[in-house]
Structure formats: C-alpha cells, structure tokens
Amino acid sequence: MQPKSTVNRQVKTEIAGIAGLAFCGILVETSMNVTFPTLMGLFHTTLNNVQWITTAYLLAVTLTIVLADYLQRSFHYRIILTVSVLASFFGGVICAAALNLPMILLGRVIQGAGTGMALPLLFTIIMTQVPRQ
C-alpha cells in the first residue's frame, strides 16, 4: 500500500502552472534565434540589432532572478506568481503587436521579467510547500 501524498492539490497545481510558465519562457527564448532572418527582413535591420532581442530578454531574466530573494521576502508568492503570469502574457501581446524593433525589445524585456520571476519561485514553492519525506 502506498502512503498518501501530503501535498495538497492546490500546491501541485501551482507547481505545475509555474513549471509550465518557466518552460514556455525558456522555449520562447531558445526558439527566437530561428526568427532572426525574418525579423531582419521585416524591420530592415542588421543581425547585430536583431540579436538584442535575445540579449535583452536574457538580461531581464538574469536581473529578475537576482532580485528574486528580495521579491520573495517582500511579497507573498501568489502576488509574484500573478505578476509573473501577467508580465509574460502582456510581453507576448506587445511582441505580437510590435510595429518596430524597439517594441519587440520592450515586449521581450517584460517577458524576461516574467520568466525571471517564475524560475526561482518554482523552486521556492517546492522547498517550502512540499515535505521532504
């Protein structure tokens, strides 16, 4: 007979949702390189300029991960989760509606901030909400 799980359904759902958000953020980042030739033609710009889309995203992710400890001490994790989801969503909307390269950069920075909040939050929830045994 298997022991009953001590992790409630809400925590499992939160972990799955945050893991999905983090996965989508990393997937979008890695797949962005494929779009470079199309973006270069669409915006009539050089590869150096288009590479800033990925660079800005990764800088935003890194900066937000560095700030994660402060954010987690200052705000409840549900607030951070909500802001992370909203930032990822609205960053994607800005990118989809972008008419020029600076708009895409803005959207990607906002998406990066959302992903950067989700990654450490995932591990924090696992460490604090899931019992070791």
TrEMBL record:
SUPFAM superfamilies: MFS general substrate transporter. GO terms for cellular component: plasma membrane. It is a multi-pass membrane protein. The chain crosses the membrane at residues 21-43, 49-67, 79-99, 105-127. It comes from the Bacteria. InterPro entries: MFS, MFS_dom, MFS_trans_sf. GO terms for molecular function: transmembrane transporter activity. Keywords: Membrane, Transmembrane, Transmembrane helix, Transport. Residues 1-133 form the Major facilitator superfamily (MFS) profile domain. It is found in: Cell membrane. Gene3D superfamilies: Multidrug resistance protein D. Its main location: membrane. This is MFS transporter. It comes from Limosilactobacillus fermentum (Lactobacillus fermentum). The lineage of its organism: Bacteria, Bacillati, Bacillota, Bacilli, Lactobacillales.
